[in-house]
Design a protein that fits this description.
The longest helix has 26 residues. By secondary structure, the chain is of the alpha/beta class. The chain is elongated and about 115 Å long. The protein contains 14 helices and 16 strands. It starts with a helix and ends with a strand. Helix content is about 50%, strand content about 20%.
């Protein structure tokens, strides 16, 4: 009877575990949902590649990319658009939520979708190549980059049957469009207020994929979110100009501490990790290496200032740091049209500059100055000190020196109780004294 009961219990557990899958299979359609916020970088590239591959394998009706980006790296953008154009599952790009922007690289990605959609109060476009500080490029260099970018975006738009002329102008003239304007210009296919509205409007559409022509059945489709994994999320979060500057500063400060205290180890490890992470982040941002050099020089100036204690050097180091931070993401070399214009928050710059000044002038400075103070503890500080015999020393007894009782031995003869004495040697925990 017990065996029968256990078998029945196991069967019920098996049915319970399988029931969601059976219901899902019977309920039919579902779509995979990927969410991209922030710059298009190497880790967003990997995330979207992985998500599209999963959607091809799990039988999803489509993969929806919810997009909000100011732009990103050209290599990552090209990888993503190439994967989208060759996907065996319908790829839908949905610029959302309200207030979102498919700028620069986001324009390329949106145009590469099988179905391009936008939420109300969103924007697409503004993909003109820029130089440092957001200024337009001039001369042959501008023409070369612009023509190359126009060729890419026109090919994408033509392959998806979208307005290639507008796409070209988005690169040439840095034009942008609201959701309604983009719909009227045939840049996108539809406007949807939310994901459920999007699925209802996608239902019945026929799209052409690498696997052939497919009809979407999404009206009652379920939503299957595919999130970034932890490494992707961590590394993508770092691709922020404010975080990159903070990591760089923490790394340099930690290395400075290690230089002042060789062998501490922990500051060296922390500093090395932070500097590497900072350079990884900056590798996905438009960096002006002149800014990096100024920040490095500011740290060196602060280190020297700890030694010489000069107000002029302190002010100079602070100014170098502020200028370096302001220039850090305004590159002198031309940037591709997929790359957004980024900058560090002025509040972050002032806060980090002030923190650096406080660290070097007060914390590290106090530690360095403390090395020059005389040591007030230890056996050698007792030599020459005076005290009084608290017992007769014949020749051994006790004395009081510096308000402490010590075992003492007279160097010669005997010393009567109450006689002033002076320490001439220290032998372990025993003092050798003479009459004062």
């Amino acid at each position: 009877m017990n065996k029968l009961f256990r078998a029945l219990a196991l069967a019920l557990i098996g049915v319970a575990l399988a029931l969601p899958s059976l219901l899902h299979a019977q309920s039919g359609a579902f779509v995979d949902v990927l969410t991209v916020n922030g710059a298009i970088d190497t880790w967003v590239d990997g995330y979207l590649q992985r998500g599209i591959t999963l959607a091809e394998q799990d039988g999803a009706q489509a993969v929806v990319i919810v997009l909000n980006t100011p732009g990103g790296a050209l290599n990552a953008t090209q990888n993503i658009t190439t994967r989208m154009l060759n996907a065996r599952v319908p790829v839908v790009v949905y610029v959302a939520p309200a207030g979102a922007w498919a700028g620069s690289a986001g324009t390329f990605i949106t145009l590469a979708a099988n179905v391009a959609a936008m939420a109300p109060a969103t924007t697409i476009g503004a993909a003109h190549p820029v130089a440092g500080g957001g200024e337009k490029l001039e001369g042959d260099e501008r023409d070369k980059i612009t023509n190359f970018s126009v060729g890419i975006i026109k090919n994408i738009a033509q392959q998806r049957g979208r307005n290639a002329d507008w796409a070209s102008k988005a690169v040439k003239d840095s034009i942008a469009a609201t959701a309604q304007e983009a719909l009227d210009l045939k840049v996108i296919d539809l406007i949807a207020s939310d994901l459920n509205d999007l699925l209802n409007k996608l239902d019945g559409r026929t799209v052409k994929t690498a696997a052939g022509t497919l009809a979407l059945q999404t009206q009652r489709a379920g939503l299957h979110p595919i999130d970034m994994n932890l490494p992707e999320l961590f590394l993508h979060t770092m691709v922020d100009p404010n975080i990159a500057l903070i990591l760089l500063q923490i790394g340099l400060l930690a290395i400075a501490v290690e230089l002042y205290n060789p062998g501490a180890t922990l500051p060296a490890v922390v500093g090395g990790i932070c500097v590497v992470l900072a350079f990884v982040a900056m590798g996905n941002l438009p960096v002006n290496w002149g800014g990096v050099i100024l920040i490095l020089l500011s740290v060196i100036a602060f280190i020297v200032d700890v030694k010489v204690n000069s107000i002029a050097l302190t002010a100079g180091a602070f100014v170098m740091f502020v200028l370096g931070a302001l220039l850090l993401f305004t590159p002198l070399t031309p940037q591709p049209p997929t790359m957004p214009n980024v900058s560090v928050s002025p509040w972050v710059i002032l806060g980090m500059g002030g923190a650096m000044a406080v660290f070097f002038l007060f914390i590290l400075g106090a530690a360095v100055r403390g090395r020059n103070y005389p040591v007030l503890m230890g056996a050698h500080t007792l030599i020459g000190a005076t005290g009084i015999a608290t017992t007769d020393l014949a020749p051994t007894g006790t004395v009081q020196v510096k308000s402490e009782l010590w075992t003492a031995e007279a160097e010669s003869g005997t010393v009567a109780k109450g006689t002033p004495v002076q320490v001439v040697r220290v032998e372990g925990l025993r003092l050798r004294v003479v009459k004062k």
